[in-house]
Design goal:
This protein has about 250 residues and is α/β, with parallel strands linked by helices. Helix content is about 35%, strand content about 25%. The strands form two sheets. A six-stranded mixed β-sheet has the order 6-7-8-3-9-10, with helices on both faces. Strands 2-1-4-5 form a four-stranded antiparallel β-sheet. The protein is globular and about 50 Å long. Keywords: ATP-binding, Nucleotide-binding. It holds the Pfam family ABC_tran. InterPro entries: AAA+_ATPase, ABC_transporter-like_ATP-bd, P-loop_NTPase.
């Protein structure tokens, strides 16, 4: 992790009619950081990520992603990021290698580089025997690991992961986080949303969202110290309880 800021937001807000999905969120993310965006389902995590990826236009506020303005530099932002949605994002009726070749082509990789990277990817994942299998026939955990690897095939500055470990078993979740660590070691910034509070422990820093508002931002260790907690579940419970008391 370096001191270079690759994501900067200032009072970023998204409204849907009278409903405010994200309310004036402000934070910075540094190059090579694993940055967790935590909260319960419906807290505004996915909405925020879509704005940062250029998939949804903010209602107000400002942001820069990889140095590009969120309003005027959308196409340049897309070339500098990878994205993995919470719903599996590869084509299930294509083989493993066909997916790699297809998305590598979209990312602008040459045939020579794509061949090298594709071979290296399947070897790293231990999927040599599955390379010619349809992705739809793979177990969910393998699909998720392949989807993540394809999202960083073009070596983006930032990869956005939206609930990447939802529905997979604990062992596969741990293996998936090993891939995240490897990406961060290579200088890729990882922005990950999750509702699994134990995964917060794997991040350098986290934000905790409650009802579209950032209620806390710091390292897991410091947040636990701040709230006299032993787990991130306890921290989130205190934040949610505080928000409910304020609403009442």
């Amino acid at each position: 992790m370096t001191n270079d800021i690759v994501i900067h937001t200032e009072k970023l807000t998204k409204r849907f009619g009278d409903f405010i999905a994200t309310n004036e969120i402000t934070f910075d993310v540094y190059s090579g950081e694993i940055f967790g965006f935590l909260g319960a389902n419906g807290a505004g995590k996915t909405t925020a990520m879509k704005m940062l990826c250029g998939l949804s236009r903010p209602s107000s506020g400002n942001a820069t992603i990889a140095g590009y303005d969120i309003y005027t530099g959308t196409e340049k932002i897309k070339k500098n990021i990878g994205y993995m949605s919470q719903k599996f994002s590869l084509y299930e009726d294509l083989t493993v290698m066909e997916n790699i070749e297809f998305f590598g082509g979209i990312y602008g990789l040459t045939k020579r580089i794509l061949k090298e990277k594709g071979q290296s990817l399947v070897e790293t994942l231990g999927m040599q025997r599955e390379a010619k299998k349809l992705v739809g026939d793979l177990p969910l955990g393998w699909k998720q690991k392949l989807s993540f690897s394809v999202a960083i095939l073009h070596e983006p500055k930032i990869v956005f992961l939206d609930e990447p470990t939802g529905g997979v078993d604990p062992i596969t979740r741990r293996q998936f986080w090993d891939l995240i660590y490897d990406a961060a070691d290579k200088g890729i910034t990882v922005f990950v949303t999750t509702h699994y509070m134990d995964e917060a422990e794997y991040c350098n820093r986290i934000t905790m969202m409650v009802d579209g508002v950032i209620k806390a931002l710091d390292s897991p260790t410091k947040l636990k110290q701040q709230f006299s907690a032993t787990t991130m579940d306890e921290v989130f419970f205190e934040l949610a309880r505080g928000a409910k008391r304020k609403a009442d």
